[in-house]
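Why show two proteins at once? Because comparison is the fastest way to build intuition. When a single record is shown, students tend to memorize it. When two are placed side by side, the eye starts asking what differs. So, the first record is below.
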Amino acid sequence: MSRLVVGNPVDGRDGPLGTVAGTRAATDGLQQEYVLVRLSQVFGLLHTTRLVPLAWVRSAPPDAPRVTLDASRAEVAGCPPLRPDAQLEAAVAQALSETVGGFDAPTMRATAQDGVVTLSGHAPSLRARRTAVSCAWDVPGVLEVLDRSVYDG
């Protein structure tokens, strides 16, 4: 497999995609490893960073100057975006507050670390607990949801 060096060019099945921006290793909550691919847009002035499964990287000599993915530009663009943990926490909290029936912020809490969202606190019902988990999964950039909340019933 190619060495994943930050700044190395990344190619897909349909040509150049961008550059390596880093990696995310499997952790306690994160089951899959990712390579962060920075995609250039609008003449290189704007970019987005996507979390691409490491399994998509094709084998190559360790000293290969480029990383090649077994994926198209469209497939990579469909991967989750890289979002800072604070932004993920805020987005999940917002999504939870907008959920039907609403969640009381002091009783249900979402924290994020490396894209893994942990829900904790008290849920008023089993349905509310399941809804919170589903709601967190729907937020773009969430890679995993750990439910540590408890049902008060």
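Second record. Ask yourself what differs from the first in the token line.
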Amino acid sequence: MARQWRIEYEGALYHVFSRGNEKRDIVSEEKDYVLFLNTLGQMANRFDVEVHAYVVMQNHYHILLKTKKANLSKSMQWFGTTYTRRYNSRHSRSGHLFQGRFKSIVVEDNHYLLRLSCYIHRNPLRAGLVKRLVDYPWSSYLAYGYGKAHRNWLSTDLILSQFKGSEKHRAYRGMVQKYSRGIRRIPEDIRYGLFLGSKEFIDRIKSEYLSGDAHADILKQRQMSGESDAKELADEVASVLGCKMEEFQKTKRITKSAKDHRDLILYLLWEMGRYKGRKIGDLFGLGYSAVSRRAAMTRERIDRDKTFKREYKRIKSIIKL
């Protein structure tokens, strides 16, 4: 089976993330958090990787890192395999710990980097684990927001250098608070599911590091090769569901069945990462904020409603998303 592209080059900056297999825990107790971070530090030293930000959650993680060599896959493969082996040994278990291969997004080294670090650090707050980020010890936020002592493999200079003056930690705390709402837009700014950056940056990376024909059965490569259009894809999904896109714009009052169809189509478009909220909203007569709300509600429903989840998976299998 073909795999999605991995964009690797010297000096590349990535947002790397993964979750537990079947959304299960990747850490079970405090010693596991320590083990995770120790393994991450060993990976950084072993493969000459700079770690700029991180957060370890119960069933997933986010890491912002820079590869001095073109070795992201080798680095993260070693990390995933090593941590899984150590975790399994501690808990007398076997088998996979993470859900498939890790995901990675190439990040432009400018204000996108700062915004993304804020997004990563606010994970515990969004998950309701703490009321104040200062109370969560398993992220790099304390080093950024308060200048606390941190692990020697964590590199904070690149992000903090974007602040002028002597009170950079205070400024960073203010930035995290300022982006409490704005950073929710980060998923909307991810292009093709592969990049977070300006159009100029994306065009350059595509030109220099991507070559060959896209595999038609890989979503992100289909998107990159320009094979899908939002309206055409929405019409295709609607056809499978036995409805038409026009009925969603005729009236604000639609039946429950029609609303379910609308939300499925909307979420599938949003999940692709190619189309911005306003583009999706135009298809349904909805505003940007309404699209974000509907996408979040649909994701929650997929997680808790087995029947709705089966329909979601059925549609994805039919149209090869």
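One difference worth noting in the second protein: The chain is about 55% helix and 10% strand.
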